[in-house]
Design the sequence.
């Protein structure tokens, strides 16, 4: 076992080196430079015997040109200051535009520059690599499974926060300042940490970029991708919300003043209307109306073994879509999930704003160390307040069926959405427990989520 | 990236020029560059591109099979590469006549197609294939292997053109060309260096492997350089030396081994019939042909690697003297191999020109490979060898080679069908000694005269300094042995220009290599000739000298290091001393007198900050931060402080103290203020 781990660590060491080289080359070599590198590899192969062909002459010429380009990079000097003006949020998969101000502090005009952004390192740690298992890895061939390179690539793609969309070439006058609009494409939800601005200058042949890195820390929150939902008609009735005045101060049937009436023994002193007593000489109390309004629970199943899994990310995206959609209705939404403990965040009607809910959604992680029953008990404790439940489930096993069954048994209307990974052969879950209510049970297949949601 | 106008056309013409496929090149240029005349464009679908790619693959396979059957050599891959511009032209035509600027490359490669079909990669890989096709043209042109210098010039021109179009706009025209000329010059030097490095490595590799396997040639078979392309670069390494009182014997051919069967650039000794020779009572003398006198003598000074070696013998050798060996073997071709001898041998070869080692010819001495027969027969008829006497045939063959052939160490690629020897005899008529020897043997055999291939050295370089003949690696030679009048005679068909050609490759630095080889040989000779006790003594002396030198170096190094440490300490101390006279300490003293003592662990900044917080209304204390910064620089900056800042520090401190004194602060004032606070 120990030897197996050592071999895995060794593989990881090599993969990390490859990743770092690829990242370095990806930024340093222009498209032309990469083509020259490719040609060098080809001519090195053909011209390996210098007596057979003249391909070695092509190889040496290209090597000399590229070496000259790289050496010229050592002569690039620039002093800059920079500041970013970032939007508060970005959404996964949607390009984000932001502004950046760059001041050229050197006494020389700088033409033909490119601007790159440095994000936090997307390379996984050794422990992450050893523990990770790529989704559907069992379908890969034996060699791929043993060497685990695709697993490494998958982890990198999962951890990669954003891609820079190449901007235009930039010219900065000596001592001058420019205001640029750059674009980036977030690829992962959560805080996007930008660590530095990189100024790249091409060499005379346009093959190799000389780079100067200017440290500049900024953070932007990337919220999950959201789907378009149809106009939802969620089942359920208004429920009495004890102590709900504070929740509903201005909208709907709030716990507001109704009328004055004579004091009856047992009325609390705080309800006495002192002014009326003074006028009438008899104790008079204020009468209030109880709170009844719609309250939905959005239950997000976070019980999943692996982090960065597409299935889990889709579940979070769907939950975000519901949270965003229900906010526009006059209802309270309780977002419930289990992380390190069972959480419930209420939003709507003067409670948490949608921004805050989306912030929470951006930070949800899978729960790997607690039983599903924690979620069940948390939901059932609040079931008496709920008008209805939207359950986004990652699988359809006995625990999950039990939760739905118990909710149904106490009369809470439920909309169940179960995610299915397999595109080629969908599982086609049987709506056990939902047999009498099949229109509120939906299986959403990966890659066809939007299609599935449209059918709700 | 799109190339400049006509760049593609010129690249194809360049390929046509180098490869000689002019007709194809012109057709391709018309096809590709002619797209400017037509507006017709097609949007290629994925299945279309797949079919085009499959068509190209089919063309490649068919041509490969055809070439393989036609030439049956390993060089068919190079020939195939030469045809790539034609074979890949359908893909390029698709690119040129595509309505899109870029083509999805993942449709062209089987692996990418498979990945896409499996759903691993959904995104198309879009690429304009013009530059890759141009690169293919260049590589194909290089496969023609025309070594005339124009290739590199044209290549640099194309590179300059392509880079010029895609260059960064921040550089001036002059700068771009200057840097490009620098790069092209470096590339030129680089490719010369690379080529020579390969030749050097090949030679060294052969030498090294010959050391690993055996120091001397294999008496049973030898591989010739017939068929190798490029230039042979024999070194000037000294292999052995020869001394003789009779200089009329020289130049002389000293044979190592003979072979009788030729097959695919290999000479093989069939049925060698090896027998052991018996030494005389001294176990140092070995008689080859007993019962004859030996009026002449040559002495050979030669390495015997690990005490083994094939002896270098003239054709009239009768006896070997002064070679203490455990065993001496002799085969029927007259090849002698010693074993259990010293690492360096100085042996005498006794000669008698009237006699030579007899080895009756066999049917193998008349064997001609089937592949060579047709060409040899044609030449034989052309030379009219049939019906002539053996001596006359030898004379005609000798004239044939010496008049119509030239010696060269460089071999070009064979063109057309036939064998390498056939190509040498009918087309190139240039070659090195192995070509001449092999061709002569086969030609004589075709004329019905038994002949053999001999390998050894041609001894001709006399050193007056040592009164010896020096035999170098470059003197390695091959010749024919012909059986006439019941005797084997050496017959060297190689033209006399060989020596000039071999010497032509000499350069000025050969002087140093000559010296090195001379010293090396001398040391080897001395080492093996001296007595063992002297050798041991010498080794001890060398070790003592080396140890003394190393000890001296170590002591000197320590001394220097100590001196450096002292200097460093002095510098450090002087730096410490340098800041100690800072005027800031006067301020510190003044404040201390007022009762604001500074603890040793409190930094100046913290101390001053504390005083400022205590007395926020005293503006004078606010100025102390700036003075402290300059003081710190003077005190601790390893680069020191500039004279102007030093003066500034003095002035600031003085001004501050004056104002402080004018305020007339007293400890009691401060104390009162504190108590009020």
Sequence:
């Amino acid at each position: 076992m120990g030897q197996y781990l050592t071999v895995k660590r060794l593989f990881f060491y090599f993969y990390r080196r490859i990743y770092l080289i690829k990242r370095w080359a990806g930024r340093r070599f222009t498209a032309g430079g990469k083509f020259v590198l490719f040609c060098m590899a080809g001519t090195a192969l053909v011209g390996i015997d210098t007596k057979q062909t003249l391909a070695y002459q092509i190889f040496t010429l290209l090597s000399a040109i590229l070496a000259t380009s790289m050496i010229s990079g050592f002569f690039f000097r620039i002093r800059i200051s920079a500041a970013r003006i970032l939007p508060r949020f970005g959404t996964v998969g949607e390009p984000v535009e932001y502004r950046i101000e760059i001041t050229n502090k050197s006494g020389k005009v700088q033409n033909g520059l490119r601007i790159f952004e440095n994000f936090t390192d997307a390379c996984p740690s050794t422990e992450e690599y050893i523990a990770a298992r790529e989704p559907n890895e069992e379908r890969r061939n034996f060699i791929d499974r043993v060497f685990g390179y695709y697993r490494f690539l998958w982890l990198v793609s999962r951890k990669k926060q954003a891609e820079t969309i190449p901007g235009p070439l930039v010219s900065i006058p000596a001592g001058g300042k420019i205001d640029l609009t750059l674009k980036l494409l977030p690829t992962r939800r959560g805080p996007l940490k930008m660590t530095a601005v990189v100024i790249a200058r091409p060499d005379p042949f346009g093959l190799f970029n000389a780079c100067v890195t200017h440290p500049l820390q900024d953070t932007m929150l990337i919220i999950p991708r959201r789907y378009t939902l149809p106009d939802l008609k969620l089942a359920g009735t208004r429920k009495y919300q004890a102590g709900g005045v504070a929740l509903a101060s201005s909208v709907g049937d709030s716990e507001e003043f109704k009328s004055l009436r004579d004091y009856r023994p047992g009325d609390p002193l705080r309800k006495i209307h002192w002014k009326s007593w003074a006028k009438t000489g008899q104790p008079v109390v204020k009468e209030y109306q109880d709170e009844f309004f719609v309250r939905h629970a959005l239950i997000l199943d976070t019980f999943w073994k692996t982090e960065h899994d597409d299935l889990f990310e889709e579940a979070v995206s769907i939950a975000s879509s519901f949270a965003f959609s229900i906010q526009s209705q006059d209802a309270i939404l309780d977002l419930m999930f289990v992380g390190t403990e069972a959480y419930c965040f209420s939003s709507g009607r003067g409670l948490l704003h949608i921004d805050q809910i989306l912030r929470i959604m951006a930070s949800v992680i899978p729960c790997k160390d607690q039983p599903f029953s924690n979620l069940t008990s948390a939901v059932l404790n609040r079931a008496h307040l709920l008008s209805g439940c939207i359950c986004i489930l990652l699988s359809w096993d006995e625990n999950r069926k039990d939760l739905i069954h118990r909710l149904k048994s106490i009369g809470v209307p439920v909309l169940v959405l179960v995610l299915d990974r397999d595109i080629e052969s969908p599982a086609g879950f049987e709506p056990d427990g939902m047999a009498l209510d099949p229109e509120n049970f939906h299986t959403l297949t990966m890659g066809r989520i939007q299609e599935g949601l449209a059918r709700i | 990236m799109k190339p400049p106008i006509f760049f593609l056309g010129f690249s194809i013409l360049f390929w046509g020029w180098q490869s000689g496929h002019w007709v194809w090149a012109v057709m391709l240029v018309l096809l590709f560059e002619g797209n400017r005349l037509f507006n017709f464009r097609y949007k290629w679908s994925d299945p279309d591109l797949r079919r085009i790619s499959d068509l190209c693959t089919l063309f490649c396979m068919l041509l490969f099979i055809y070439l393989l059957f036609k030439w049956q050599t390993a060089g068919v891959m190079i020939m195939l590469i030469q045809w790539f511009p034609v074979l890949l032209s359908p893909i390029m035509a698709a690119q040129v006549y595509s309505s899109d600027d870029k083509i999805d490359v993942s449709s062209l490669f089987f692996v990418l197609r498979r990945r896409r079909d499996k759903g691993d990669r959904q995104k198309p890989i879009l690429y304009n294939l013009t530059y890759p096709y141009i690169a293919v043209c260049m590589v194909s042109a290089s496969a023609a292997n025309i070594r005339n210098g124009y290739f590199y010039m044209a290549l640099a021109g194309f590179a300059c053109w392509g880079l010029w179009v895609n260059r960064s706009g921040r550089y001036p025209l002059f700068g771009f060309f200057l840097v490009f000329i620098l790069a092209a010059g470096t590339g030129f030097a680089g490719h010369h260096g690379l080529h020579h490095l390969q030749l050097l490595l090949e030679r060294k590799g052969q030498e090294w492997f010959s050391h690993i396997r055996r120091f001397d040639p294999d008496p049973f078979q030898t591989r010739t350089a017939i068929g190798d392309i490029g230039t042979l670069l024999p070194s000037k390494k000294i292999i052995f030396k020869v001394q003789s009182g009779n200089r009329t014997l020289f130049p002389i051919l000293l044979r190592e081994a003979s072979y009788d069967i030729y097959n695919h650039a290999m000479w093989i000794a069939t049925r060698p019939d090896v027998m052991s020779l018996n030494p005389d009572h001294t176990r140092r003398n070995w008689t080859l042909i007993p019962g004859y006198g030996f009026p002449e003598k040559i002495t050979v000074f030669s390495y015997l690697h690990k005490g083994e070696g094939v002896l270098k013998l003239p054709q009239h050798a009768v006896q070997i003297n002064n070679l203490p060996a455990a065993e001496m073997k002799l085969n029927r071709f007259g090849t002698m191999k010693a074993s259990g001898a010293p690492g360096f041998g100085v042996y005498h070869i006794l000669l008698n020109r009237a006699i030579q080692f007899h080895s009756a010819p066999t049917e193998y001495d008349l064997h001609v490979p089937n592949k060579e027969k047709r060409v040899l027969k044609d030449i034989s008829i052309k030379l009219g060898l049939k019906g002539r006497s053996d001596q006359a045939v030898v004379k005609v063959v000798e004239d044939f080679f010496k008049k119509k052939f030239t010696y060269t160490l460089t071999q070009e690629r064979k063109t057309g069908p036939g064998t390498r020897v056939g190509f040498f005899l009918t087309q190139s008529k240039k070659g090195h000694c192995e070509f001449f020897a092999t061709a002569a043997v086969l030609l004589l055999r075709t004329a019905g005269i038994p002949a053999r291939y001999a390998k050894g050295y041609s001894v001709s370089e006399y050193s007056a300094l040592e009164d010896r003949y020096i035999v170098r690696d470059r003197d390695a030679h091959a010749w024919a042995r012909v059986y006439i009048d019941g005797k084997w005679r050496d017959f060297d068909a190689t033209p006399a220009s060989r020596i000039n050609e071999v010497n032509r490759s000499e350069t000025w630095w050969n002087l140093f290599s000559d010296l090195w080889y001379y010293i090396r040989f001398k040391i080897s000779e001395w080492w093996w000739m001296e007595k063992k006790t002297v050798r041991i003594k010498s080794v001890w002396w060398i070790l003592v000298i080396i140890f003394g030198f190393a000890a001296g170096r170590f002591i000197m190094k320590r001394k220097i290091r100590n001196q450096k440490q002292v200097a460093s300490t002095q510098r450090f101390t002087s730096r410490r001393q340098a800041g100690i006279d800072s005027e800031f300490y006067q301020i510190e003293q003044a404040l201390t007198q007022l009762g604001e003592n500074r603890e040793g662990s409190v930094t100046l900044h913290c101390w001053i900050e504390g005083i400022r917080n205590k007395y926020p209304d005293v503006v004078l204390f606010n100025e102390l931060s700036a003075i402290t910064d300059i003081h710190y620089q003077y005190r601790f900056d390893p680069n020191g402080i500039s004279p102007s800042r030093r003066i500034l520090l003095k002035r600031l401190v003085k001004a501050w103290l004056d104002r402080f004194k004018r305020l007339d602060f007293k400890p009691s004032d401060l104390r009162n203020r504190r108590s009020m606070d």
Q: What stands out?
A: Confidence is low (pLDDT under 50) at residues 671-677 of chain B. Residues 532-580 of chain B form the longest helix (49 residues). Chain B has 22 helices and 24 strands. Chain B touches chain A through 49 residues (CB under 8 Å).
